[in-house]
Structure formats: structure tokens, C-alpha cells
Design a protein that fits this description.
Radius of gyration: 25 Å
CATH topology of the largest domain: FAD/NAD(P)-binding domain
CATH architecture of the largest domain: 3-Layer(bba) Sandwich
Mean pLDDT: 93
Structural class: alpha+beta
Strand content: 15-25%
Number of helices: 13
Shape: elongated
Largest sheet: 7 strands, antiparallel
CATH class of the largest domain: Alpha Beta
Length: 418
Amino acid sequence: MKPKSKLVVIGGGAAGFFCAVNAARLNPELKVILLEKSAKLLSKVKISGGGRCNVTHACFSIAELVKSYPRGAALLKKAFHQFNTQHTVEWFLERGVELKTESDGRMFPISDSSQTIIDCLLNEVNKYGVEVRMNADVVELKSKSTSEHDPAFEISFRNQQSLTADYVCIACGGFPKAEQFEWINKLGHRVQPPVPSLFTFNIPDNPITSLMGIAVAEANVKIMGTKLQQIGPLLITHWGLSGPAVLKLSAWAARDLAGDNYRFDIMVNWLPQYNEQLLKDKFRTLRFDLASQKIINRNPFALPSRLWEHFLLRCELNADLRWADLPAKAENKLINMICSGVFEVKGKTTFKEEFVTAGGIEIAEIDAQTMESKIIKGLFFAGEIIDADGVTGGFNFQNAWTTGWIAASSVAKAASTQ
């Protein structure tokens, strides 16, 4: 009897699980082994979205979807034609997991618990007989193929007996340090060095940090000296600035900011519907309409009251000052502070549990239709190990589901023809 073909998936995260369970489901004659370096499975899934798991983002147009990937869009644009957001929603629904869409487009299980997604994937592992090995720290992957039609690999571990495989899918996620790519580098693939993505901006010693916890629904954050900017919610923290506007901006600027050692200036417009001239015109109207009212009591822009008071204090305006008596010099300073506030960023803060990297296997060396290496037959890639990353967690998960599914279906099909 001919032995089963064997697929070994390296990485027990979202992409690895999705590849493993779908490959086993699509080809029951395929032996699938899933390797996890640590003692925890799906750890990022567990803590993502504050423990709710931001499964994907409600963006159902491929043309729009790819705009949320600072890196890897060329590969993903082709990949999304095979498996996209709609497919993700349907895949989980078929397994009894319904997703809901929130106002900002993020999609979560209706249970509001990441455990629902974990249980779903674990059920698939059990249902299709995927073998899971924990504490499997890969130190070497050798291609031992003797012919084009006989791909074979040997996988060596730090603390376990080696494995052989007919197919391998590397889905072990982004590494924070380049040295951790060493065993992949030896395969002959080019690897873009990993740098952090999705981080917040530290502005130490700036008085605005005293307003920690205050959020503005919409602000424009621009990295000075570049064209990079983002409009969105902005959160003041005890170390600096965070929120979707900053996180998205950090993703787009990840490589540039790493090169600057995370020291740069940003300009914030707290009222992006105004530029300085428009706001000056508005102030002229306010001087007349609110003439007798105290400026500190009459905030006409719906900014958080503590933030408004902070601006007035920084401009050294008296608490009893009326709109009609606002000095021209102070007005100009206030307008500038609101529309063009400059902050010196010195460093970043990354939430380690949700660490996302820009970097990985160059997309030019991966077949977008199959996720197979263009260099080594039988070797596939999925998830964050590919040099592709999104602006928020849901887009990164969609990358994992899409590339994991394509790799799975490609291996399942290849194994059936052997």
C-alpha cells in the first residue's frame, strides 16, 4: 500500500492552523503534522482584539481591501481572488461561528470571545486528524528532493527527533529579530529584515501626556518631512499618542521610522475639517456670535473639554477671557496649536502580545496562485512570514486565512496527483 503523502506545517498560529485543517479536509489521504515552537497554540488569536479576536475587516471589494496592506499588496491582490473576506465569513459560518461587524468595520465572533475562534480551529484539527506537536523548535530545514516529481524535506529540531515531509508550509509568523530567520535564509530565499509595525508614538515629557485617556474621534497625524499621514481616532496615553490614526501611520512608515531609530516629528491637526485659514475665518465668526461668553466655558468644536482647556492653558489665556476679547497673538497661537501642533517623537511602544512585523520572505519569490516557493518545489508559505502586513489586526488575520487556505488547497491538489 502506498504511504500517505505528508505535509508538515511549521507554526501553530492562525495561518498555520488554517493551512493544516484545510489541507487535511481537502485531501483525506494527506498526513498533516502541525508544529508549534512554544507550549501555546493560537496565542495571538487568544489576545487579539482585546480577547475578542478581530477575525477580519468588513471590506468586500478586493480593490479596496489591498489598499490596507503597506507591504505585499501585489501578491495579495491575486490571492484574494481565491479566498477573501466573504470566504472567511462563510468558512466560519459553515462551522457555526457567526461574525458581526462593528461601526469601524472590524469583525468579531458574536460571542465576543476569541475562544470561539480557537475552539472552532481545534475542532477542525480533531475532526480531520491533524497531528499537533508542541515545543517543536525548528533549527534546520533541508530540501532533499531528488527529482522535480519527488519533493522531500528533512526538518531538524532543537529538542526532538527529526521529521521528513513531502511538503512543508512555513507559517511561523513574523520574527522580531533577523537572526530567527537564519534557518529560512539557508534555503536560498531572500528575506526582508523584520522591523516592528503597528506601534504607538512616545513623546516623553510633553505636557499633553497629562491628558492620558482622552480620545479624539478624528484627527490628522502627519510625519513631518514626508507625505505620510493618516486621519482617524487619536488616543492620548501616559507615554504619548496611540489610536487607529497612529497605528495605521506606523504601519505605512514602519521601515522609514526604523531607519530613523524612531526619532522624528509629527504634526497633528485636531480638527482635520479645518486648515489654519478656515479656522481663522471660523474664529472671526465666533468672536461675534459668542462675544460675551467665556472661551473656557464655550468650546465650539466638540473637542474633549480637558483638551480644549489644555490648549487655552498652553496659550496662557485667562480663564475669565471672553471671545470678544481674545488677543490676536493668542488667537494665532491657539489656531496653530489646533491645526499644526508639532510633537517630537522619541521612541515607540509595541504591545508585545500583538507584535506585528514588516518583513519576511520576498513576495517576488512566492507564486501568488499557490503560495509555493519559486525556488524550492514543495515548499509553501502562509501568513506573516511573507513580507505582507496590514494596517490593523483584522487585515493581518485576513492575510493569514487567505494565504493559509491557498497553500492548503495547493498541497491537497498536488498530493492527489502523486
